[in-house]
């Protein structure tokens, strides 16, 4: 632990720090967050910063669920939501003149708050993934506020030296370049600069086949430059989160931080569905069939019906459905019994025990590395591991032909107006809203009153409606972020009220000897 | 179990019987398995000493007993171990931070997969919805072209788009093919990069709830254009004759479901009802679509017929195999326990002539050695130390496969020769 010499008691509580400004660190509104803060931050500041950023990220998430990220509405909505909490995020960098105080303070807050949330969100893969996605979206949004000049400034500062390919090369590749992007109609091509970079630096574009690829190099149009920068941002952050997670146990010694950090992340996800203590044993294998008809979201109902019909599910389906069942309270022994009874209609018990029971026990943390796996969230179901031939998992709203979806919904007696509404939402890419609509129709409520982001949440909300605990609502309850209760000042004199950030830095660069996986790409 | 299928696919060869494996494997591992080039490949010239030693192998024994984290210090240890254990199957895993056999003695978490070839697995079972001849693990000459097309398309993209030089294609022994991309920079790719490459190569998407699995936008990406060109060379024979995709009422119906727009679907149906074979109908469709396009009726789906071809022919990768650095894949030259066939390398230049049913089984090979010698004198075998003029594999139908493999390893060795010179240049010794 390091104690800096400047630790004087007086000026610490003020948010605006005038002394010891390190202007060179904050040259631009945008940051890559490569160097952790190493100054002293008061606990109050620690808390406000964290909560404010959390609210911002939450706003980023909900704007992303409601609107397409490329749309006008998305930008407007987000701007409006975060203007107050994070003014820096909606203004363009002023590269001229000397730095204003407000710029400095806002940039510092951006910097520190980012690092605090890293600590809170590095603990599990689920959390890391969530944080990473929101931070990337936030960065992308902020990048959009900048212009060519300020972007150039930013690139130079971060040693990202990208230069357009020469005109001759561009002309020689004309046809291929034009047909590699949907936007190169008409003269757009003539005015666009292309950047040639190794394909590893533009993986998002490669993945989506949005660029021309030749002998290991991609040709990125200027408009997609953000994607390269984001991929570098993502790479850094993903690694940093993994390193932070490894280092976190050392931090556990500082109780003051721990409490605050622990509080923080539970505030967003609302609930952690891997914790089965509350529900454990509530569901028996016999209950699954009737529940599947009343309270399962479409994805799970679909998997259930497939399992009943085919007496088999492929790996993706077993994971998605198995973990969901765990989440609603099916205990391990019951789960084994349940899966066994279906699978053994197709194979002998021996084969089941050999090939499948391990998988189920694994999900319950009884095998392998003994992680108690978390049921998949909607985000995960929609974004990752899309179903391939033979698979039944995934999100029915995302991974079903519209025609087939219509049929299926009609089969479940959704009226035609409802079907149309759902299909329209699906066409707009609003899969979670489509699912919410399905909930409203099948539960006969006007407004579901919750923002759906987890199949297990669907189940619980459904149970509430059906068991009368939650009458059809008039006032929607949105999971809001509450300030954690201030921790009582019960520390004795030997505890200082402040927390030296350079200790955090030390942690962030600490040993790498515990395995923490980086967040897998979505 | 699937006895029938084994019989079917080994019809005219020396009948392979799974129960013979315990007797055949010792001969195979002793006399035929190409340890030399195999070791040369996986040690990559020994530029990095620990590369081979930290490589995970895993063995499958009789009764599906699976042992992971095997590793060997050198070629002779590998040979001895394989001959001692007689694995029914060998898988190759990643190169780890430590020797895999010591993984329990290393601090948990420190033991991590660091590098591996980029691998692809293409399996015929994933094509069940577009095969009219077989399903599941079965294959026949009428669906095998799918694998030929897959190899050509993926190989081209890996070479031209990604610039990967060293690609080894291997028959998986039953119903699919594997590809190992072995360039140095490729072996270092992380999971994100591997995923991106696999997805770049995936066009057919969606599970059982998605009938139409391909949707293309205008303009068509150059990589897909190149793929289409490859597929169009196979269309006449494969799609219209071997699969005869429009030949019966049911098959036609299946294809028509791939046109979501009712208007177009009805016109095409009328076309089909005019009769003729698959090719006649298809040619009529081409004209119809062309004229519809001219009348600007195709804004929403500019490539309806291309999409059919992609859905029926485009390679379907098992993306999960390619994603992970730490994913194990069956080794070249092991024996597929169900068919007895050797997982032989495929010469991409000559992939059209690759016949999976002509791939030797372990039974054939052992017989070939015996017949070559003609006098079944046991004494000779007892002295493995005596230099044979002709290596055993050359007496058998494995010869060509080993040569293909040697060619691949030779190409690869160019990279480390350069590397060795570079290293010695740096050290300054000449």
UniProtKB/TrEMBL annotation, chain A:
Which residue ranges does the record annotate as region Disordered?
1-21
Cofactor: how bound: Binds 1 [4Fe-4S] cluster.
The DNA primase large subunit C-terminal domain extends over 290-459
List, alphabetically, the GO terms of the cellular component aspect: alpha DNA polymerase:primase complex
Q: Where is the composition biased (Basic residues)?
A: 1-13
Give the record's GO biological process terms.
DNA replication initiation; DNA replication, synthesis of primer
Give residues annotated as binding [4Fe-4S] cluster. Answer: 299, 378, 395, 435
- Obligatory cofactor(s): [4Fe-4S] cluster
Gene Ontology molecular function: 4 iron, 4 sulfur cluster binding; DNA binding; metal ion binding
Q: Which Gene3D superfamilies match?
A: 1.20.930.80
**In its keyword annotation, does this UniProt entry include DNA-binding?**
yes
Q: Which domain of life is it from?
A: Eukaryota
Q: Which UniProt keywords apply?
A: 4Fe-4S, DNA replication, DNA-binding, Iron, Iron-sulfur, Metal-binding, Primosome
Q: Which family does it belong to?
A: Belongs to the eukaryotic-type primase large subunit family.
Physiological role: DNA primase is the polymerase that synthesizes small RNA primers for the Okazaki fragments made during discontinuous DNA replication.
Assembly mode: Heterodimer of a catalytic subunit PRIM1 and a regulatory subunit PRIM2, also known as the DNA primase complex. Interacts via (C-terminus) with PRIM1. Component of the alpha DNA polymerase complex (also known as the alpha DNA polymerase-primase complex) consisting of four subunits: the catalytic subunit POLA1, the regulatory subunit POLA2, and the primase complex subunits PRIM1 and PRIM2 respectively. Within the complex, POLA1 directly interacts with PRIM2.
Which named protein is this? DNA primase large subunit
Q: Which organism is it from?
A: Branchiostoma belcheri (Amphioxus)
From TrEMBL, chain B:
Q: Which UniProt keywords apply?
A: DNA replication, DNA-directed RNA polymerase, Metal-binding, Nucleotidyltransferase, Primosome, Transcription, Transferase, Zinc
Its needed co-factors are: Mg(2+); Mn(2+)
Choose one Gene Ontology CC annotation of this protein and give it.
Answer: alpha DNA polymerase:primase complex
One MF term from GO for this chain?
DNA-directed RNA polymerase activity
EC identifiers of the protein: 2.7.7.-
What the entry lists under Pfam families is as follows: DNA_primase_S
Q: Which InterPro entries match?
A: DNA_primase_S, DNA_primase_ssu_euk/arc
Q: Which domain of life is it from?
A: Eukaryota
Biological-process GO terms, alphabetical: DNA replication initiation; DNA replication, synthesis of primer
Catalysed conversion reaction:
ssDNA + n NTP = ssDNA/pppN(pN)n-1 hybrid + (n-1) diphosphate
Cite the PANTHER family for this sequence: DNA PRIMASE SMALL SUBUNIT (PTHR10536)
Q: Give the similarity note.
A: Belongs to the eukaryotic-type primase small subunit family.
Q: What is this protein called?
A: DNA primase
Organism this protein belongs to? Branchiostoma belcheri (Amphioxus)
Q: Which gene encodes it?
A: LOC109480605
